[in-house]
From TrEMBL, chain A:
It is found in: Cell membrane. GO terms for cellular component: plasma membrane. It is a multi-pass membrane protein. It comes from the Bacteria. This is Branched-chain amino acid ABC transporter permease. The keyword Cell membrane applies. GO terms for molecular function: branched-chain amino acid transmembrane transporter activity. It holds the Pfam family BPD_transp_2. Its main location: membrane.
């Protein structure tokens, strides 16, 4: 137990010191910021897929709603950015609930089709918006986050902001999955008929899972928008939704650390493949296939299996 | 104007129908969904371009070659990847992701081999335009409609009246019972994947001369094919065709009379509408209830 808390403190110190370690390597801090964004987005997807067992292949849509919602609210209503981020995430939550209401009766394959269609509709709306308010394919410029006069404009500042957000969201997720709602999610994932028989309102909890997940991903989307300060439709295509799922499955579902490892591993791999730009997607496709064939439990699954085995031995 | 719109609607609708037919075949035979069907169409178009445009083979021979190649590719993918995953008893999401990975691989391999530019598929017929009811259309467009219909009828006859087709339907209906009757279920599922790849490739060759050949040709068509399959009732072969033609007509009419910007939104909205309101589709296919 003591060893565990020591390693936890060490990890916290290490995370706080990352910008110092990468002092002369701004690019590294940049990537760490992105990893933070993706951890939040994928933790959201994990709530609906890993815990509640409902697939979503259109989570890029919530990412887009968060990003564009926040950027548009800031530009046209001149609201302060942190407020717009929250408003955009709340809007996404409502849209998620609205989508989940009729979608909750669909089973796996058809839910995936419905979410693909939803993702495409949002993508098309963003890419060919009425009156061109989103800037369409030329993209949309926005500002960085302003915390009561303190601008989060450098990578280091954003890193700390993301670190706080990640901790907050993970804590929220931890509390949620340990609560009554979280147990209902698991029951629905394991057997929705049995859950229904035990008095769990399956439809209601599916909607809650979907809406919460939309909140997470949309907030991550708004972080992305104000980090890069430029958004264009390509970031929110169905490829992004597949990327989310890949990261989640690569890291391992239904855990706190799975999304963290998945986001970091896939993002670093993608950055590492940049040298072979022409072959990047091809290699990515092959890697995806190999991972699916060889390690269906993800990184978390492998580590867990190791630990379990050691426990059995000792 | 109207006739032109209807003809182009029928052309793209028939291709949607062919793609949806592939989805229905696969879903009926194995209860799975392939997201690589659209890229099979792309690959078919590229192979057709190579055989017909570069190697200068006669069109019929190129068509047969392409369909054979794609048939074996589909068979191979089922045997090598899908069957392995099924044997490992993985979650269904991994199979969906595997087909997406296959689609990325096909897309990007095609890009590396044939380049990023839109290639123009050489004409199939010596005359550039023919008159139909007072409007001039590409003969390839009419050929596309005709060939898709022939394809559908041929597939119908194969499934309904041949020994092997009957065995395939039996395997799809109840794998265990079919196995007890001495049907090689694993082989017939493989053939189903092969057939749907072949059908998609045919769609690609038919569409090539009209739309040109490029790497993203099938990506959108593949996703729209889902709409047509759901409209007709997922798993229903005739529903797939009817749904495809309906979707094609709706789409071209919206882009002709309202705005082309919204045609994609409309087809995906139709998909959502059907899923939410009438998931069994026009033909009341019960596949969705399980």
């Amino acid at each position: 137990m003591k060893l565990k808390s020591v390693s936890k403190i060490l990890l916290a110190v290490l995370l706080l010191l990352v910008p110092l370690l990468f002092r002369n390597f701004n690019y590294g801090i940049l990537i760490c910021g992105f990893i933070g964004i993706y951890i939040i987005a994928i933790s959201g997807l994990d709530l609906v897929f890993g815990y509640c067992g409902q697939i979503s292949m259109g989570h890029a849509a919530f990412f887009a709603i968060g990003a564009y919602g926040s950027a548009l609210l800031h530009k046209y209503l001149h609201l302060p950015i942190l407020l717009t981020m929250v408003i955009a995430a709340v809007i996404a939550t409502l849209i998620g609930a609205l989508l989940a209401y009729p979608a909750s009766k669909l089973v796996f394959h058809f839910l995936s089709l419905a979410t693909v269609a939803f993702g495409e509709i949002v993508y098309q709306l963003v890419a060919q918006s009425p009156g061109g308010i989103t800037g369409n394919f030329t993209g949309f410029y926005t500002d960085s986050i302003n915390l009561l006069g303190f601008k989060i404009s450098t990578n280091t500042r954003f890193y700390y902001f993301a670190l706080v957000c990640v901790c907050g969201f993970l804590l929220m997720k931890h509390r949620l999955v340990k609560s009554k709602e979280g147990r209902a999610f698991l029951a629905i994932r394991e057997n929705s008929h049995a859950a229904d028989g035990m008095g769990i309102d399956v439809k209601r909890y599916k909607i809650i899972a979907f809406a919460t997940s939309a909140f997470y991903t949309a907030f991550a989307g708004s972080m992305y928008a104000h980090y890069v300060r430029f958004i264009s439709p390509e970031t929110f295509s169905n490829r992004q939704s597949v990327m989310f799922l890949t990261m989640l499955l690569f890291g391992g579902t239904a855990s706190l650390s799975g999304p963290i490892m998945g986001a970091a591993a896939v993002l670093l791999l993608n950055e590492g493949l940049r040298f072979a730009e022409r072959y990047q997607m091809l290699i990515y496709g092959f890697m995806l296939l190999v991972v699916i064939l060889l390690m269906p439990g993800g990184i978390y699954g492998i580590i867990k299996k190791r630990i379990d085995k050691r426990r059995v031995v000792s | 104007m109207l006739i032109q719109v209807v003809i182009s609607g029928l052309v793209i609708g028939c291709v949607y129908g062919l793609i949806a037919l592939g989805y229905s075949l696969i879903y009926k035979a194995s209860g799975l969904m392939s997201f690589a069907q659209g890229d099979m169409l792309t690959l078919g178009a590229f192979l057709g371009y190579s055989f017909y445009g570069i190697f200068k083979l006669p069109f019929v021979i190129s068509l047969v070659c392409v369909v054979l190649c794609m048939f074996f590719l589909g068979l191979f993918l089922e045997k090598a990847i899908i069957r392995t995953l099924l044997k490992n008893h993985v979650l269904p999401v991994y199979i969906v992701l595997a087909t997406i990975a296959i689609s990325y691989i096909i897309q990007n391999a095609a890009m590396l081999i044939w380049g990023t530019q839109t290639l123009s598929f050489p004409q199939i017929f010596p005359i550039p335009l023919v008159g139909v009811l007072g409007v001039k259309v590409q003969p390839e467009a009419l050929f596309c409609i005709l060939m898709s219909l022939v394809c559908m009828v041929a597939l119908h006859i194969f499934m309904k009246y041949t020994r092997f087709g009957t065995a395939m339907r039996a395997a799809a209906m109840d794998a265990t019972a079919a196995r007890a009757c001495g049907i090689n279920v694993s082989f017939s599922t493989g053939v189903t994947w092969g057939l749907s790849a072949g059908v998609a490739a045919t769609g690609g060759i038919l569409l090539g001369p009209i739309y040109g050949v490029y790497t993203m040709l099938g990506a959108i068509i593949g996703r729209k094919g889902f709409s047509s399959a759901v409209i007709g009732g997922f798993g229903n072969m005739y529903g797939a065709i009817v749904g495809g033609i309906l979707l094609g007509l709706v789409e071209t009419c919206t882009s002709a009379y309202i705005s082309s910007a919204y045609k994609d939104i409309i087809s995906y909205s139709v998909l959502l509408l059907f899923l939410f309101v009438k998931p069994t589709g026009l033909f009341n296919e019960q596949a969705l209830t399980d």
